[in-house]
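User: Just a sanity check before I run the rest of the batch. Below are the structure tokens for the first item. I only need the designed sequence back.
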């Protein structure tokens, strides 16, 4: 049975946090982009709240490391901030030099935003009553338990195959993104080498 967020008793101050790298896996699976204007409208039209704040967390590649124009990603951040009123937390992808099992040198990109998301929620814990977290990362289980101990609700939004069982059952409720038909936008057109969303 599909869940309806309008049935949730959340309190008057709400935070919506979007883990872009994790949500990208859902986008690839659905083969559609999330339309963040539709997502914002969905929450504002279906929840009775005094305030809803939206946060978007992402790591971006350096110019010249992709076959596409990286500046489009920064244009998207500007749209989220100025067009939709989101708070955008971003940082440059870090290049990490490692040695693989065969003894060969490799360079991996890392851009995890878990720490930034956790700090925001811990430091601002008196500024919200409930959190809507768009991520399936099991690393957030400890955060979910912390928030619940402080009488906060945390609802998880993710997709099958991209959500850990621990986080799925560890929050105050779980919502399947693919069932939320009204938040999806244009079709995903894959590049020959697609690494990250625009």
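Assistant: Here's the designed sequence for the first item:
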């Amino acid at each position: 049975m599909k869940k309806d967020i309008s049935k949730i008793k959340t309190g008057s101050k709400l935070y919506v946090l979007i883990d872009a790298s994790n949500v990208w896996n859902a986008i690839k699976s659905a083969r559609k982009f999330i339309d963040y204007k539709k997502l914002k409208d969905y929450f504002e039209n279906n929840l009775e709240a005094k305030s809803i704040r939206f946060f978007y967390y992402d790591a971006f590649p350096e110019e010249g490391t992709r076959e596409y124009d990286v500046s489009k990603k920064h244009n998207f951040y500007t749209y989220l901030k100025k067009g939709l009123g989101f708070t955008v937390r971003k940082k440059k992808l870090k290049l990490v030099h490692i040695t693989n099992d065969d003894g060969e040198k490799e360079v991996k990109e890392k851009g995890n935003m878990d720490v930034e998301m956790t700090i925001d929620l811990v430091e601002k814990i008196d500024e919200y009553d409930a959190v809507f977290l768009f991520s399936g990362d099991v690393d957030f289980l400890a955060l979910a338990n912390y928030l619940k101990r402080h009488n906060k609700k945390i609802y998880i939004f993710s997709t099958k195959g991209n959500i850990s069982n621990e986080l799925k059952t560890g929050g105050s409720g779980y919502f399947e993104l693919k069932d939320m038909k009204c938040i999806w936008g244009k079709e995903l057109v894959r590049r020959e080498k697609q690494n990250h969303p625009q």
